[in-house]
Amino acid sequence: GGEGGGGGGGGAGAMSGGDPVVLSNLCTTLSQTHRWHASSLSYDEFRLLKRLLAWPTTSVFPVLDLLRLVAAHPDGASKLGSSFAGLRVLDMTAPEAAFLTNASDKGAPMPVQLMALRFSCNLLANRDSRTAVATQAAAGDEANNPLSTLTALAAALTEGGSKTNKNVSSAAASLLVNIAIVCSPAEATKAGWPPLRVASQSDLAMNAVAVGLKGGGTATDDEVTYRLVLAADTLMRNMLASKGGDVAAMSDAFRECGAAVESVLDRTTTQRTNELAQKLTKALADC
Predict the structure, then answer these.
(1) What is the pLDDT along the chain (287 residues), one digit of tens a residue?
(2) Which of 244, 245, 133, 117 is nearest to 181 (CA)?
(3) b/e map of 107-138 (b: 16 or more CB within 10 Å)?
(4) Alpha-carbon distance 150 to 141, whole Å?
(5) How far apart are CA 80 and CA 71, in angstroms?
């Protein structure tokens, strides 16, 4: 203990001066979802978020809960994508982005894991912030590739994280579906990815999906399994299209992912999960 929820014990992230008013205004804007299309977030609000994200992993949950909503807000997502006010959540070397790596830790609090995943899902669901993530991945700096970090986060949490929680598994599987969409030809072309980048990001994602499909914990929940098969379906059909249907030219990650999808057919699942796995397995066999 000792960290509490009040700024993680003072220091750089402690609240001061006009911060409570800034925070209150931010909360008001985010709570009025019916006005999101017409509302915007301020420089001061982003500067405050940057400071609050310095809180330790044990107490950062309420900040991530806010950040998750900022990423869902049209203006907020756009500004996250452009590092507005110096809030660099897409810079994996920045302190305010550390939560994306820390949440992967086996001992991280479950709410922090869940909020980090939901933030990531929202980040990739918005066009502006999704494009910013894909464009940064195109730069080829592996130490600072947010898409690889998000893929690692999803891979680490498909089995439910520190508390083997179904909502965590579900959010991790949803994130892999969103990552699969970023790896699609339309998105990759728009971001200027060379073929090798498409292959490497897709391989990372297919490895994460295979880990989830072969995993235990709450990864075996049917809703989670369905989302993982959906991610596999998107990734593998994209790879088949790009390689002209030549399975022999496929990577080990592709083959492993295919085997993991096929193994789903041996389980008792709902009809929609079984049908999706069956169709993909048949498509692979027909190549």
Answers:
(1) 333 334 444 455 677 889 999 999 999 999 999 999 999 999 999 999 999 999 999 999 999 999 999 999 999 999 999 999 999 999 999 999 999 999 999 899 999 999 999 999 999 999 999 999 999 999 989 889 999 999 999 999 999 999 999 999 999 999 999 999 999 999 999 999 998 999 999 999 999 999 999 999 999 999 999 999 999 999 999 998 887 767 677 899 999 999 999 999 999 899 999 999 999 999 998 87
(2) 133
(3) ebbbbbbbbbbbbbbbbbebebbbbbbbebbb
(4) 15
(5) 7
